[in-house]
TrEMBL record:
GO terms for cellular component: plasma membrane. It comes from the Bacteria. Pathway: Protein modification; lipoprotein biosynthesis (signal peptide cleavage). The chain crosses the membrane at residues 66-90, 97-115, 135-159. One of its GO terms (biological process) is proteolysis. This is Lipoprotein signal peptidase. It is found in: Cell membrane. It comes from Bifidobacterium dolichotidis. Belongs to the peptidase A8 family. It holds the Pfam family Peptidase_A8. The keyword Transmembrane helix applies. Its main location: membrane. It catalyses: Release of signal peptides from bacterial membrane prolipoproteins. Hydrolyzes -Xaa-Yaa-Zaa-|-(S,diacylglyceryl)Cys-, in which Xaa is hydrophobic (preferably Leu), and Yaa (Ala or Ser) and Zaa (Gly or Ala) have small, neutral side chains. GO terms for molecular function: aspartic-type endopeptidase activity.
Length: 189
């Protein structure tokens, strides 16, 4: 492997490590808070945190946001599996660390809720998600917050023209504009 190809792979390895670290921490945080909610709120009580703005209430949501598709949980689970795969592929293809961060948060949110759908299933992928953050109009969890932050971040990056990728793929390695000029000069000799 040439030094050029080796140096092109280092940033990808760094982004992969950042993706993995953020995703693992975010998934663990989500699952620990859900475990806490299952033990602390299983008696059915509601705990006020910020008056009527935020309360803690244990709810098992078989649907998506606001109970959407509650009778078709398996569709949501299949969509979450597909989304997780797409997010990993996108994270692998981006050359932007900022995109990597928000893609990892989106992955963590989708995967965190998918874990619930698998663990709490009584049939194939029909499990409910553990929600406990009661906003009055909706009840959610940490994975939902991660998905919301990721969504807002991605929209802002698009609006601010943060490039998803600034490299071209040549022979399976990132080929930046400097490398392209170097390759073009070498091919003319």
């Amino acid at each position: 492997m040439t030094q050029l190809a080796s140096s092109a792979r280092r940033p990808r390895a760094r982004r992969a490590a950042v993706f993995a670290c953020i995703a693992i921490v975010a998934i663990v945080l989500d699952q620990l808070t859900k475990l806490w909610a299952l033990t602390a709120l299983s008696d059915g009580r509601t705990v006020p945190v910020l008056g009527s703005l935020l309360r803690l209430t244990l709810v098992f949501n078989p649907g998506a946001s606001l109970g959407f598709l509650a009778s078709h949980t398996w569709i949501i689970a299949l969509f979450a599996i597909a989304a997780c795969i797409v997010l990993i592929v996108l994270a692998w293809r981006t050359t932007s660390m900022l995109w990597t961060v928000f893609l990892s948060l989106a992955f963590a949110g989708a995967f965190g809720n998918l874990i619930d759908r698998v663990i709490n299933a009584t049939d194939v992928l029909n499990g409910a998600v553990v929600d406990f953050l009661n906003y009055g109009w909706s009840v959610g969890n940490v994975a939902d917050i991660e998905l919301m932050v990721a969504g807002i971040g991605i929209v802002l990056m698009i609006l601010c023209n943060v490039k998803f990728s600034d490299a071209h793929e040549v022979n399976g390695t990132a080929d930046t504009s400097e490398q392209t000029q170097s390759n073009q000069a070498a091919s003319t000799k």
